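S1.2 Input.
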Amino acid sequence: MRGADLALILTGVALNAGAQLLLKAGARVLGNEPLQLSNAAAMLERALMNGPILAGLACYVISVGFWILALTRVDVSIAYPMLSIGYVLNAVAAAALFSEQLSAQRMAGIGVVVLGCWLIARS
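S1.3 Output.
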């Protein structure tokens, strides 16, 4: 895979991972209030006025643009598995930003994902 093609894929993956982290940050602000039909409209309004959630949605939109560009250059059978790198980025970032735990088992899984992506990128 050419370096420019890999850069398109990784940019899309990074934006997608960033979107997840922003959505999580926004969700933390919203709280864990029970979802009921009576409060659904108010919760939706709060979500749509939440800066991190809006930024996360914007990252998703931009990531789709990068993804479409990547798919014009790379086989989907190579590009799609690269989305797994997002799991790695999110696991590490969530540990740093949200104090989520990275157990030995999770780290082993991350290692398998990295190895798999490396093998696919070299094919």
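S1.4 Remarks. The helical segments are 3-30, 37-48, 51-71, 76-79, 85-98, 104-122.
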